[in-house]
Write a structure and sequence with these properties.
The chain has 406 residues and is α/β, with parallel strands linked by helices. It is built from 16 helices and 16 strands. The chain binds ligand T4K.
């Protein structure tokens, strides 16, 4: 039986792309080099627990960012949890809701209350002007998220943190290789946390890292990621297992060798999207500040339903049937997910800009696995959908699209 979208007969019976075009397709550097590294670690029979590849990766990241300490970890979420604990956060911590759920969970997991702050509709980052009204006697910190790799207003946040004697951490999961006022992200706040998940433009299969200039904090984090062991048989702190394996570090070393190539390709892809999307009504491609270093790893659109004639959800739904697996990051927002939705049923009233963004933002595929011609095709498809928005709205049964949006 034909799907409802096929019945529209706007598109051919076959999807536009024979293979699925994914957001988050991993970038893999030189495969031969990766296999050499893996052969080395197998011959060495040292697979994890602060092995030579992990140490080399940490050193190279420190050099790249210009920071004193880099502590590599098994993933970004554990890195966040450990950074939060080591920084001594308790009670309430102010975070944006417009982020991946891991930012909020890393707090709640430790019974710290995430207090959701609204975002700036232009930058998509936490709105510093809304933070002070959320500070209570229980507040111990602020976590800014450099969403899409575009830096938070670091100076403004630092001033608030200083004034109220709060700790300031950054979830820099998206921002490896980016700068704020010419300085590498990773150098700000008490510490910053990267994710090197497979879907990030630089990946270690799974992985992450905390970077900081604070010697004491780094020492605590190093203990915490290794069960609290200070040396053989001596545990001096509560800890967990946050270690990065050697095979992950090998992937990281391989990726670092291709980092500039990945960024160049992402930038070309971004420019291609920019060129192809300019004249499509209701579609805005978010800009990157060309005066800074960007990794361009996210192609983010804002859909203005009125001007486009279709909602973000309709567009994503149709693109999926055409094998373009666009994503609704960050839908529906942390405050609308459990347990936060139950804890704060009225949170959305305090987060009007977040609410709007969660309804209109979507991500398109990029990275080294996509060709410029594919991007042209994706944009042609978007143009076609928008040009046919009237027929789409006429024909589509409301229930196949999220009824809340229509
Ligand atoms: N803070 C922020 C702001 C974050 O964005 C993240 C992670 C974190 C913290 C936590 O860091 P980690 O603990 O993850 O290191 C994905 C990623 O799993 C997640 O790492 C990332 N943010 C988030 C934005 O995206 P999902 O739920 O979208 O993943 P999934 O499995 O649906 O995959 C996304 C797309 O990637 C799909 O189209 C398939 C494709 N893919 C995925 C994998 C794993 C591949 O093509 N190959 C692969 O190997 O969360």
């Amino acid at each position: 039986m034909k799907t409802k979208l096929e019945q529209l007969a706007i598109f051919g019976k076959k999807p536009s792309f024979a293979e699925k075009m994914h957001v988050g397709r991993p970038n893999i550097g030189n495969k031969g080099r990766l296999i050499e590294y893996i052969n080395d670690l197998i011959d060495r029979k040292w697979l994890t627990n602060s092995g030579p590849f992990e140490q080399e990766l940490e050193q190279r990241i420190k050099d790249l960012i210009g920071v004193k300490h880099c502590i590599a970890m098994c993933n970004g979420t554990i890195a966040l949890e450990i950074a939060i604990r080591a920084a001594g956060l308790t009670g309430e911590v102010i975070v944006p809701s417009f982020t991946f759920i891991a930012t909020a969970h890393a707090l709640q997991w430790q019974e710290i209350t995430p207090v959701f702050c609204d975002v700036d509709p232009v930058t998509h980052n936490i709105d510093p002007a809304r933070i002070e009204e959320l500070i209570t006697p229980r507040t111990t910190g602020i976590i800014g998220v450099h969403v899409w790799g575009r830096p938070c207003e670091v100076d403004f946040l630092s001033a608030i943190a200083q004034k109220h004697k709060l700790k300031l951490l950054f979830d820099a999961a998206h921002a490896f290789g980016c700068t704020y006022q010419g300085q590498m992200i990773g150098r700000f706040g008490n510490a910053e946390v990267f994710s090197f998940h497979a879907t990030k433009f630089f990946n270690t299969f799974e992985g992450g890292a905390v970077v900081t200039d604070d010697d004491n904090l780094a020492a605590k984090i190093n203990l915490m990621k290794n069960f609290g062991f200070s040396d053989y048989d001596n545990v001096i702190y509560i800890g967990t297992n946050g270690k990065m394996s050697e095979v992950s570090a090998a992937m990281g070393l391989t990726g670092l060798e291709s980092l500039e190539e990945f960024i160049t390709k992402n930038r070309q892809n971004y420019q291609q999207y920019q060129q192809e999307l300019t004249d499509i009504p209701g579609i805005k491609l978010i800009p990157y500040n060309e005066g800074e270093k960007n990794n361009y790893q996210y192609i983010i659109l804002e859909i203005d339903k009125k001007a486009a004639g279709v909602s973000r959800d309709q567009l994503v739904e149709i693109l999926h049937t055409e094998n373009v697996l666009a994503r609704k990051y960050f839908y529906p927002g942390c405050h609308q997910m459990q347990p936060y939705r139950a804890y704060y049923p009225h949170a959305k009233l305090l987060l009007p800009e977040t609410e709007k963004l969660t309804q209109k933002v979507m991500a398109l595929p990029t990275g080294i696995n996509i060709q410029l011609d594919d991007i042209t095709e994706i944009c042609n498809l978007i143009r076609l959908i928008i040009n046919h928005s009237k027929e789409i709205n006429h024909h589509l049964d409301k229930e196949i699209i999220n009824p809340a949006i229509n």
